[in-house]
Amino acid sequence: MESTVLKIEKFSAFFGENQVLKEVSLSIPQNRITAIMGPSGCGKTTLIRCINRMHELIPDARVSGKIFLDNEDIYATDPIIVRRQIGMVFQKPNPFPMMSIYDNVIAGYNLNGIRLAKDEKDRIVEESLRKAALWDEVKESLYRRGTFLSGGQQQRLCIARALAMGPAVLLLDEPTSALDPKATSHIEELIVQLKDTVSIVLVTHNMAQAARVSDFAAFVYLGELVEFGPSGRMFTAPKDKRTEAYLMGKFG
Amino acid sequence: MKEPSIRRRIIYDKVFKKIIILLTFCSILPMLFLLFFITSKGISVINWNFLTQLPKPVGEIGGGISNAIIGTLMLIGIGTAFSVPVGILAGIFLSENRKGTLASLTRLCVETLQGVPSIVIGIIAYIWLVVSMGSFSALSGGVALGLMMLPVIITATEQTLKLIPGSLKEASLALGVSYPRTILKVILPAGLSGIATGILLSIARVAGETAPLLFTAFGSPFMNLHVLKPINSLPLMIFNYATSPYPEWHTLAWGASFILIILVLALNLFTKVVTKRWKVQF
Fold this sequence. Notes:
By secondary structure, chain A is of the alpha/beta class. Chain A has helices at 44-51, 79-85, 101-112, 118-131, 135-138, 151-164, 181-194, 207-213, 231-236, 241-247, and strands at residues 4-15, 18-29, 33-37, 61-69, 72-73, 86-89, 169-173, 199-203, 216-221, 224-230. Chain A has one domain: Rossmann fold, CATH 3.40.50. Chain B folds into two domains: 2-45; 50-277, MetI-like (MetI-like fold, Orthogonal Bundle). The longest helix of chain B has 41 residues, at 2-42. Chains A and B meet through helix 2, helix 3 and helix 6 of A and helix 7 and helix 8 of B.
């Protein structure tokens, strides 16, 4: 039995009158990669945004149900604390444009007003960049602006920035959809390496990617969790007709 | 068949480009004339004494405008101190709240304030501060100028911040950074160039204002550094000297005009440098 890091229970999300997620229940296993697949607009992005409460940026969003991180109800915790434990990487790389590479990585501490000794900072920056497989490429130019990097490097910088906070879970929202194939395979390799340090939830509409990297897969359709299980089984013998149709490319 | 029509198009093309260049040149002509005229009239009185001495009574030769220069700087300083914090905060509010009653009401007020004649702003400052405090003062003049700067700063801040991609805010919030810190440490620095440009342009705009100062700062022949006492300023002094019957005062007014125009020109050039230097590429 896998140990669970995130437990989602009967979770629904609404934007105004519109119900986007319908009673989703899901257990995200620890130190594994869980892919969430589904056609555009099925609610998969909403689902992971609800996990670190980023959906609250939208004024008329509301939710019901519960999400537990290590048995702690994240909706009973301050979102600021939740977001430090659950990191997020977005579709488009979004390094802070006015900061150097170094400052981008340490931004989570600096912006939060957490004071660290210089050598402590140096250690976190190097460690995070190494984990994000970016250290060798940028160690000579740590004090240059992060926006000088290529798209793929910027995305790895964003991953390093999220890792620097030492999160328990890393949410990746279609992290390669804005990248070329080479940068994509780079990120995929990186994701696989990362699962030793952090539990990963990967949203993707790229089935091949989900099949390549994930240990578990969830298929979401029209706001419902249709199927969840080990990727190996899911991609070869889906239980639900809708999953099968999606995997066959009949819609999506 | 085709040949002549293509030739005609090419000619149209060339004529159109020439007309655009000509009209552009026409639009900078007044500015060039103005600069030339003021420089030729004003530069002859500019010397060290003109910049450092106080005005002298009628009939005496010489005298300077040091009190007006200091006064203008003080008035701008007071206006900036008052309008920059309020303006930036209001701009943040408007860019963060695109809809909503308070936001649209604020926007309406800002647009209205922008259109209020400067003399009316002067009267308001007069009623608020001069009447209630019982004396013309640098403070009331500064507040009047600040009121005029306010809409420019608010609009510049709002427009700049609106252009900052939402992904930047998300990046910060997703790191567990609180909303106020996100605004202060991520959004504002990213918009620094645009906001600074707005502030500098608003200063350049009010540096030459006379009307709001007529019954607030009032003017003074003495050097004054006290914020609660009447103070001189370059435009006030130009107004007073240029409308006087004495030719030697007219010359001084030309000199003061020259200084004022140099000040505004320098501010505008500085603004361009700031815009370029602090520009953040997204």
